[in-house]
Amino acid sequence: PTLAEHPLPKLLDEGLFVTINSDDPPMFDTTLTDEYLRISDSFGFKITTIKQLVINSIHASLLSSDTQLALECEFRTQFAELENEFGLSSAS
């Protein structure tokens, strides 16, 4: 199967809690950034979808609730700065 055949968009449309992972970066010669770029290119995801996937990964971690909330706040701030810098909106 190809990435384009993956049910990821359907899983998201159904409201499932999904995260993106890089599995074994050295073995597959990839990074988490590469994986986000691949799904963005393959499925045409907008910034809001990528942002939600990143936030999902924070909440799927084994970090304490306080640390998760702090990281979410930090990531949302970083996303807002990027959106502003590149003229993106939440609808983009």
Automatic annotation (TrEMBL):
Alphabetic keyword roster: Hydrolase, Metal-binding, Zinc
Cofactors named for this entry: Zn(2+)
UniProt key word DNA-binding: no
Pfam families attached to this UniProt entry: A_deaminase
Residue ranges constituting the Adenosine deaminase domain according to the UniProt record: 2-71
GO molecular function: deaminase activity; hydrolase activity, acting on carbon-nitrogen (but not peptide) bonds, in cyclic amidines; metal ion binding
Keyword Hydrolase annotated: yes
Protein name in the entry: Adenosine deaminase domain-containing protein
Biological source species: marine sediment metagenome
